[in-house]
Specification:
The protein is mainly α. The chain folds into three domains: 51 residues, Homeodomain-like (Arc Repressor Mutant, subunit A), CATH 1.10.10; 47 residues, Homeodomain-like (Arc Repressor Mutant, subunit A, Orthogonal Bundle); 177 residues, no CATH class. Helix content is 49%, strand content 3%. The chain is built from 14 helices and two strands; from the N terminus they run αααααααααββααααα. It has a two-stranded antiparallel ribbon. α7 crosses α12. The chain binds a DNA duplex through α3 and α6. Keywords: DNA-binding, Nucleus, Repeat.
Length: 313
Amino acid sequence: MGRSPCSEENSVKKGPWTPEEDQKLTDYIQKNGHGSWRALPKLAGLKRCGKSCRLRWTNYLRPDIKRGKFSNEEENTILHLHSILGNKWSAIAAHLPGRTDNEIKNYWNTHLKKRLIQMGIDPMTHQPKTDLFSCLPQLIALANLKELLEHTQLAHNLQYLNLLRQPTIIANNPELATALNATNFMATDQEPNPYFSNDSLQVGQGRVEMSDFFSVENAPVGGGCSQPLQQQVSIDQEVVGQCQMGLMSDKSSSSTWNPLPPLMDSSGSNNTNSQENSSTVSYGGGGASALNWPDFIFEDSFLEDNLSEIRQI
DNA sequence: AACATTTACAACCGCGGGTAG
DNA sequence: TCTACCCGCGGTTGTAAATGT
């Protein structure tokens, strides 16, 4: 009873198609149309089952098939339609001229599905995953990203402070000079700044190369960043503005991690040895201080007044 | 250079709906 | 209404190519 499956038919060839077989099939269909697929192999002189011929034609030999990489537009269409239709590959293919359901299915399984999983999105529901284990890699990546961005803000703040050390700026702002002196951040030519240089930075007990902060190679994997990390954190002409924002946010929120150098009372006898302090001061602690940073360094007008000096550096 | 592993994709398999007799 | 057959669909497998060790 019932029909015999294609694979059980006698003398039916399976496996990859040869160029000769492709040519026979193409020639026959172009001359006669496919008609009955079941009858086609015999008429075309092929030792294949009708089903195999149909698949070969519709998925590979059909002249209107588009080859090559899927465009961003096609990817977006697949993602959108899949979120509505699910695994209805033929329905999705109907919206993508030249693409077969098989090709879309393969592309989904090998590229798009994996990408959604990496982004912490359930490929079947298109919703963010809720179970902790399945999105553990994303959580780790986010934790790494947070750490990187905190260090980046620290670097920005310190670079801003370094810019403020310029003699012309200090000469015009005695209050700033006092504050900088109070941080142990002020250095002379004979006594280099222990915390910051153009290419490295003191963080707690360690020293980190600036290149570690600002290279894509060291960026955390995953995390769903919508733009290259380098674009987000690179120090360029906007660094002054970013530094100022960092300073202001830290100033207004003392309960959060504070990357600013603490102000120290310079009248104290124990704070004169910067070399000793360099090994003990931790920016992360932000310990209690009787002194405050002068308000004017957080204001736009101060920045604008000194922008020309800062940009000459 | 050799081997192992991963990736990409063509092809196969089985199921279910539709239809003619 | 039942049966045999055809066709299309979605899931799965096999394998060549690419990449890593």
